[in-house]
């Protein structure tokens, strides 16, 4: 938070190719409002794209959605999420599984993902369910991840064929096709389906967010196909970011274009972009020139990035430790974020910046600089958050799970038809990955969250833990081979 490279003041680039010049907040807000207004007048509101982030608070994403849909009137808004979960929530056939549900499940199906690296607390619940509760764990993956050590069954598939594995759970008449794409024996599919239908007690289905929309719809409806009297089937998505679920709940992901489509439309259908945060490296890969085609780009950020390097206006945003608000985790629990330190330099919370731009455009959102007022409106307008208030979230020992709407049982014939066509197009040449990835290859990877922390550079390079760094026992287990072996033996 206190890194010397934090953006200290608003910056304006008055002409393309020129330098970013320090400005006051009033100057920057006025400049942004004038440029967005001029873009809408010249090209229509849909020429403006608004982009949120799965890393910022629910309050900030909600205000961005409100700004885009109600004030600007554009259909083009999204978030820099790596994968969309919209299809999951549109077809949700059962509740989200909490960590407590995972820990006490009698059977767990893990489709893709690598929770020990990307969601280590979730992986801990899986290990405890197997070791302490005797849960039967089935892993479907192209990589022999470390959780296969605890699995009753590991179905080792070809890279890029996860959607085919999901099709096998829904469609029994295509086993020859599916097995060929997965690179497995057809009998494994029969055994898999039999084990899922015959298992007793609660089942948790966990899945990587890289599943396509059709595959997510099938998974979302599995509680109807596999559930029964006295038996729950719960779902647990594994997206990559702290507020991926919250970003979907705030409807910022419901716009007409994805991030990739927005980049592809830059300079043509999209003339201006207003962003909280930056594009992911993989989203810019192969599209490096897209941002340069925009007539206007404004970015709210903590540090300089590939995205801010091309921005016409850069606005210093406050970090998670400098704001009040909420996140919604993969369990569906709404978690309070409380300001620990004042905003560094002249930075401001993302939602405050958006509200000030709205005010400059002549619309007062009425939040009176209060995050609780924003959340109150969320609770009034987002059904899953109905009647929630900050005081209700006060007791962290008893977290509150949002009430996502449960969809009726759907006719999936059209979805399965589309999914089958996608599976038919999959190659059968990819070779299976045989080596278990190195411990910490994702957990301690230097990236956006840790790139400014020198101690993480040491961990990422395989060095011992620096004396100045404290690591929770859970994380220490992942990098200490002897502790890991002991934990596996004990079930912790």
The number of distinct structural domains comes to: 3
Please tell me how large the radius of gyration is: 23 Å
Strand content: 5-15%
Q: What is the general shape?
A: globular
Helix share bin: 25-40%
Span of the ends, CA to CA: 33 Å
Q: Can you tell me the CATH architecture of the largest domain? A: 3-Layer(aba) Sandwich
Describe the structure.
With 492 residues, this protein is an alpha/beta fold. The chain has three domains: 11-81 and 272-401, Rossmann fold (3-Layer(aba) Sandwich); 86-240, Dimethylsulfoxide Reductase, domain 2 (3-Layer(aba) Sandwich), CATH 3.40.228.10; 438-492, no CATH class. Helices cover 36% and strands 13% of the residues. It is built from 19 helices and 15 strands. The protein has helices spanning 25-43, 58-72, 86-90, 99-103, 115-118, 120-131, 162-170, 175-182, 186-198, 213-226, 244-249, 259-264, 281-284, 350-360, 371-381, 413-424, 454-460, 473-479, 481-490; strands spanning 11-12, 21-22, 48-52, 77-79, 107-111, 136-141, 153-156, 203-208, 233-238, 272-276, 296-301, 313-316, 325-328, 333-337, 400-401. The strands form three sheets. Strands 2-1-12-11-10-3-4 form a seven-stranded mixed β-sheet, covered by helices on one side. It has a five-stranded parallel β-sheet with strand order 7-6-5-8-9, sandwiched between helices. Helix 13 links the parallel strand 10 (272-276) and strand 11. Helix 7 (162-170) runs antiparallel to helix 8 and helix 10 (213-226) packs across helix 16 (413-424). The longest helix has 19 residues, at 25-43. The two termini are 33 Å apart. The model has no long low-confidence stretch (mean pLDDT 91).
